[in-house]
Amino acid sequence: MHPAYSVIFFTTSTGAGYGLLALLGLMSLLGVLPAGLWPVLAGLGLAFALIAGGLLSSTGHLGRPERAWRAFSQWRSSWLSREGVCAVLTFVPGTLFGLGWIVTQRPEGWVAVAGGGAALGAVATVYCTAMIYASLKPVAQWHSRFTLPGYLIFAAMSGLVLLNAVFAVFGQAASILSIAAAVLTLAGWAWKRATWQHDDALNLPATANSATGLAGGRVQSIEWPHSEENYLLKEMGFRVARKHRDRLRLIAQALAFAVPAALLAIAPLLPVPAAVAAGIVAALCQIAGLLVERWLFFADAKHTVMLYYGRT
Staple 219 to which of 163, 208, 247, 297, CB 3.0 to 4.6 Å? Predict the structure, then answer.
């Protein structure tokens, strides 16, 4: 599949933003948010900036961005529409949570309830985003048991790494937070490797024989149905060379998982300035690595419509 940069940025940015928002809301509901106005407010500001930036960038992939609002009307049948509805609704408890924190600076009462609602909305939105791809049966790499958990794990992982960095900047660093972020990053790494292993051994769910209903022998395409590249070939016929794919996988693993996990693991042993720097670098590296991982998520996907063009 063609890896559109707008969608790559959208899924990475909103995933991290919703992960951060969900963690802040959950901590509010549990009453474990740190005291003080600025750490939580900065975390909420960063979460909303990532979410808003991602949602705006997603319109860049539309042929008519001014008609994006029409997608909301198809929520009964479309995961894309459900994602949009959940994204908008999540801003309501999220905004109440932020305003409540400015006024009370205490994670209790209606502020805690609003935080819990924001966390629930954030998880629901990431779930819908994942289902946009997991529900597509013609793309075997997406229509698998790895896609939905992967989106949720990466959102929680990147959100926790960002939360650790924000709290560290405001002097609220906690060893347990840094270690938890390192452990979740390693879990995300293991899940990504398992996903790649599954995808590399995957066979397409259809063949030219099954698509045409012709049994026996091997059905082959004599010539392509088009003399020039068309929309299907551009959007669904993208191919990446194996050597480039392997190199990008190594880069993604280093930036998104290995380097952040190492920095987060040693951060509690470092003096405060170095620990803060380690948290910030870990967050920046992970976002960069997840952008590469998400590019591969699209580039590696194969749509069965390409059987029509003689691809195997």
Answer: 208
Q: Which 3 state secondary structure label does DSSP give 62?
A: coil
pLDDT of 232 > 70? The answer is no
Between CA 137 and CA 142 the distance in angstroms is 8
Q: Cα 146 from chain centroid?
A: 13
DSSP-derived secondary structure letter, 303: B
Asked if 264 and 178 touch (Cβ cutoff 8 Å), the reply is yes
pLDDT of 201 strictly over 80: yes
**In degrees rounded to 5, what are phi and psi of residue 142?**
-90, -35
Q: What are phi and psi of 165, to 5 degrees?
A: -65, -45
Name which residue leads in pLDDT, 210 or 251: 251
Report the half-sphere exposure of 219 (CA within 13 A, side-chain side): 16
d(CA 78, CA 253): 33
> In degrees to the nearest 10, what's the CA dihedral of 260, 22, 6, 234?
90
From start to end of the chain, where are the E strands?
A: none
The answer to whether 34 and 85 are in contact (CB under 8 A) is no
The domains located in the chain, with CATH, are 5-309 (1.20.1630.10)
**C-alpha closest to that of 55 among 72, 76, 42, 38:** 72
pTM: 0.91
Which residue is listed with tokens 């989106």? Answer: 151
Q: What one-character DSSP code corresponds to residue 42? A: H
Helices (H) and strands (E) in the chain — how many of each? 11, 0
pLDDT score of 311 more than 70: no
